[in-house]
Structure formats: structure tokens, C-alpha cells
Specification:
heterotrimer, A mainly alpha (about 280), B mainly alpha (about 280), C alpha/beta (about 270), A: about 280 residues, mainly alpha, MetI-like fold, 10 helices, globular, B: about 280 residues, 2 domains, flat
Chain lengths: ~280, ~280, ~270
Amino acid sequence: MRRGIGRALLFVVVLAAIWGLWEGYRWLWMRQSWSWPFVVDDTSMPHLQDIFGALFDPARVNGPLLITILWHSALFTAKEAAVGFAIGASVGFVLGVVLAHFNVLQRGLLPYIVASQTIPIIAIAPMVVVGLGNYGIAAWLRVAVIAAYLTFFPVTVNTLRGLQSVEPRALELMHSYAASSWAMLWKLRVPAALPYLFAALKVSATASVVGAIIGEAPSSIPDGLGGAIINFNQYYTLNPANLWATNVIAACLGIFFFLVVALVEKLVVRRPPEQRA
Amino acid sequence: MSAIAQPIPRATLADRVGRRARDWVPAVVVFGLGLVAWQWLIPDVFGVKRFLLPRFSDVITTFWNQRSELWSAGWFTFKEALGGFVLGCGLGLLGALVLSRWRRVGEALMPYAIAAGAVPIIAFAPITNAWFGLLSPWSKIVISAVLCFFPVLVNGLRGLTSVAPESLELMRSYAASEREVYRRVRIPNSLPFVFTALKVASVLAMIGAVVGDYFGGSTKALGVVIQSSVALGQFETAWAAILVASILGLGFYAAIAAAERLALSWHPSVRSRAE
Amino acid sequence: MSEDLVVSIKGLSKVFRRGDLTALQDIDLDVERGEFVSLIGPSGCGKSTLLRIVGDIIPPSSGSVTVNGKPARRARLDRDYGIVFQSPVLYDWRTVTKNISLPLEMLGWDRGRRSKRIKEMLELVELESFGSHHPWQLSGGMQQRVSIARAFSFSPALLLMDEPFGALDEMTRERLNLELLQIWSETGSTVIFVTHSIQEAVFLSTRVAVMSARPGRIAGIVPVDLPQPRTAATREDPHFFELVTEVREKLQAAGADEVTEEATLQ
């Protein structure tokens, strides 16, 4: 109970500190007219309350409230990210298992899997979106594929490491029970790999949201947060608060995905306390 | 009193080279297969249009013909990535040192640092453009820096604090000051963790710089070259530029990995590979 | 007479968790210069805690600890003792030589003085040709010898050892016992030695302090009057077995059912 109150208090303190730092920086830089690292005015750093207030204003004249628009955009992007996460995590896990069992494949494919992450996904996103469009796949699903592309890599690498992290003695014990490879996988290696897996899933949760936004932006898909960012970016000088508000919502979406995975991890994995020093 | 156990005998040079070569055979085979697929399977068998993925030979020809423009664009963007890398990793290390020193603050703020790392930084590219101007490299440097900051902070902190209790007791028996404990124990102990994060950051920095270009940037930048080539229908150029981005990212990663091997010659993950 | 007391413990108690856990209760123990005192007792009797309090690694709850005529904290700051743990606590990024030189670097010794002393230490533990090796290239027993060399490197008056051979096999342990005795007589230092093994305690010590189960008290002291220097033959001496039996009986009386002669912490 005490810890809960303490944590809530800390949360409030952190929020207040952020607000204080923002407004303080703003006030000081505007007062002194400093131009490094950048000029501070109402356009570059709107008041936090203006950003918050913009959510509850119509985005266009006589249009729906900004927060309504952003809510739907966020849901759209969330769907892409969630499906992309599911696909990417599954593919990543299977790939990790396969590579762990077949050393040849590991040595043959791993360098390219690593190299694949150096390709700027934003560049090939439009091509993927158009290409998959030929097969009659819905637009959001195509973006989900892009999200999956960013998601699978950490999962593969960490699954591989986790499966290989089993102590040789534990393996020998399983052998003595004449356990099949399949049984060893599920009863021994996978549980040992869970901490690594969840570490990767937390990174992937973020990556899937990033992938979804990056997938939408250059592909001219207007329904999601990526589209909203492009849109409000065009009108930034007129109404900076809109873009900031969109970013805040995007940030919340990323954090939300992360927290969901962290929560599942707490429920699934019982971890011994890490060595504290 | 004879020695209890002999140290592990080191393999001869010939053994090691031979083993290395054998390790790489599968990768080379896959590379060859990949090239075959790119050159023939994908365009001819699967009928993939050139605007999705041009033939390998076409891309290479364009790559060669435009190599000077492509490389100068690549270098331009690489400098942005490098700047962001240095800035982000430097701040991350500093943050790790500070948070490890004042443990209570560090533990309290850790969840927030981790949550902040879950924010899609790329969404902030338009804002950094507004701050620093589209053409200024700083708008991309900041993006790369933020991308590099979090892995380095989290891993650095873990490395600085995961020291065995008995090691700290030993230091206490030497009446060591906090500074000495850091210098002699915590910092060397954290190096493996930090290098892991630096490798991740190297790739992220390059990606961050290129993606940042997509929201607006100088025509000298690689991301802008990719984007405008696509807009003009010059897909071979676009893919050649993507190739450049990839090569630079891999090169950066390889450089960090080489530095790691030098600095961590004592670490199990490095020495077992050398055996 | 009191100048010959290296360690003087009076009325020492230690409680943890705000009084819930009494680890040590009313410990009185004096250790004279040149002695080799073993602390033996059942698991959880606080012997390691006692050792750490002597080293001022953790503070006592009440009572006094005097080391070399000073309060324990002063003795620690003056580096009056060296400590060896059950795990060697060597740093992988330093060679054997540099591991031994660590406390010397911290004491500000210049390079010439350091390398001379390290050479002496390596000879002392018979690892002369392993100076440039890294800890992972050595066996467990060799690593512990490096740890001992490091502890002795600055010639402390007192050596604290917390089950240093507990993780090693029996043959290695017996060999290292003899080596330790040799080092002890050559350096003339005082040793407080925590162990699980009755045989080891009797073999090494001039006195064995038997501790009771938690809360830890000194249940009895057994003087070991076996002839010095001890050799492998000493283990066959009938008086050796008598002493082992005496210690075991005291342990059992103190409520220790689990301690056995071959006890290792494996």
C-alpha cells in the first residue's frame, strides 16, 4: 500500500518536473532571446497547456475534435502495430528455434538477418505497400507487414541466445530421461529462453509501433498516426500544437504497447532478483 | 608443488584460419543463392516489376555509374549519423554513471527512462526539422542521438551495477573511495554491456539519419536521394542508394565490433571465438 | 601482553532486519599475534558475519572490536588486514600480475616496488610462470592462490579468510592447506580462518573456536597442540583424531547436526 502511494507520488512529481522544466526552459530562453540550440517561440515550443488544449479543439473549422481524430488514427495504427507485432514475434521465434537447432542455417543466414536491419525500412515501405497491393491485401495489413519486419529481428536474436543459454548439465539430465528433441525444447530450452524473449518483446513492442508509423508515412495512408503526422506537419507554422499533440498520442501508444508486454512478462515469468550490488 | 591444471592450449594459426573459413561457407553459399534470386528468380520467374525491385545487374550498373554522387550523399548522411551516435552515446554513458552513483534516484527513474525509450522517436522528426531547419544536419543528429541514448543508458547502468557483492567487499577492505571503485571495478565491468549497446546504436544512428531525411532534408543527403529517385521513377538509383545506406550501416557496425574485440580481449564472448 | 593482541572482540552482537534476526550474541574472543584461529560452526551460525565485522565490512550492533590496537574501522582504513573469500574475486580484465598489484596500486606504491613485491608473492604461492596469464586460464585452486598472494601482498598483520578452499576438491584443498601453513610461518602473520570442515580447522589452527547455531555464540575453544610445522603425516597422528573428535563433540553439543568432516559448500 505504501509502495503504491509512493509510486503514484513519484509519478506526479515526474510529471510536475517535466512541466516545470518545459515551461522554465521556455521562459528563460524567450526572456534571454537565446538562439542556441534553437530559437524558442510559440511555434517551436508551444505552452504545454496549449498542446493539451488543442486536443479538445476541432482540428479543422467545424470539424471533429482533434482528440477524436487522433483516437481513431491511434486505433488504426495500433491495429497495424499489434498484428505486425504478432506476425513478427511469431516469425522471429520460429526462426530463432530453427537457427538454434540447425547450426548450418545459423551460420548461413544470421549475417543476412543482421544485415537486413541496416536497410532503411522507410525507403522500401512504399514499394512493399504497392507490391503487396497487387495481391489484394488491405492497406493496413500491408503496413502490418512492415511493422513485422522491424519486430522480428530482436526476437530472433534473443530467442537464439536464450535457447542456447541452457546449462549443459540440464541438457544431460534431459538426455538421461531419453527426452525427445521436441520435449527438450518445450520443457527446458524455452523456459530458459523466456527472460531473453521478453527482453526482446519489450523492444519489439516499441519497434512495431515505429514500424507502423514509418510504414504509413511515405505510403500516403492517411488513416493512421503516420498520416496525421505528415498532415499536421504541413500546417505546422499555422498550428504547431496539433503536431505536438499528435506526437504525444504517438508516444502514449508506444508506451502503452510496452507496458502491455511488461505486464504479461510479470505474470508469466518468475524471475529471481537480479544480482544487486 | 606442481601446477594443478594446465592452461587451455591455443590452436595453431592454420587451424584457426581453416575453422574460420569453414564457418563462413554457408554464408557465402546463401549469398550466392541470394544473388541468383535477385538477378533471375525475382524479375523473371516471379515477374516482379522494376519499380519494386530492379534487376541486380541494373542496380549495380547504376551504382557504379553514379558512385561519386551516391558516396558523397552517403558520407553526408553518415556524418549526421556519427554526430548523433557520439552525442547520444556520450549522454547515455554520462546518464548511466550518474544514475549508478545515486542509486535511489536511478532506481526510481529507471521505469521512466525505459518508458521514454518506448516512444517512437521518429514521430519527432518533423519537430526537429521545425527547430533546426530542414537543411541543418542538427535536425537529423538529434534524432540519431535520441535513438542511441536509451540502449546505451540502460545497458551502461546494468553494467555498472551488476558487480558481485564480494568484489565490493574486497574494495571496502582496501578502504577504496567510490571513485576508485568506479575506476577499477565498475567501469571495466560495464564494458561488455556498453559495447553491446554501442553495436545496436551504430545501426540505429544510421537508420535514424536516413529516416529523418524522409521528413525533409538537404538534397545532399542520402534519404532525400532515395526519396527523390523514387518520385522521379529512377528505381535503380533508389536501390543503389539503399545499398549505400546499408553498406554504411554495416561498416559502422563492423567498426564498433572491431573496437570491441580490441577492448574486450579478455571477455569470454571474444576469447572463445578466438580459440 | 595487550600489544600482542591482534584482535580483541568484546561483547559483540549483531542483529539484522531491525531486530528480527540475531546473528551474533555476546561474542568474546581474543587473538594473539602469530596465532591461527579457525571459526567453525553450523550453517547460519554467523561465522562469516563475525569475520566481516572484524574487517569492518559490516558494522556491529553492539560491543567492541579492536584490531591491532585500533577500532576496526581505523584498522580497515589503515589497511591492517587482507581478506580472502570463497570465490577468488579476481578481475578478468587484469592479468595475474595486475590482479596482485591492485591493492599495491591503491596504496600508491611505485612501479619498481610493486613489481619486486609481486615477484616475491608469485614465488610464495609457486605461480612464478603464470604472471601474464588471465584468471580464466587458471584452475580454481590456482586462482585461489593468486587471491592469497594478493591478500598478502602488502604484508598485513592480520589475514581474514572466509572458507577460501570450500569450493575446491579435497586433494587441492589438502595441498593448499600445506601451502597456506608455509606462507603463514614465513610471513609471521595472524590468521582468522572460517571453515566448514573440522579436519581442516584442526589441521591448520593453533586454536579452534566452535560456534553455536543461530544466534551465534562462542560455544567453546579447543587449543590444538599438535607439533609445528604440520605435515601430511600430522593427519595420521592419533592426537589429531582426538582433537577432531573433541571439536565434533563440542559442535554437536552446540546444536550442530549438519556439520560433517568432509563438509564442502558444493
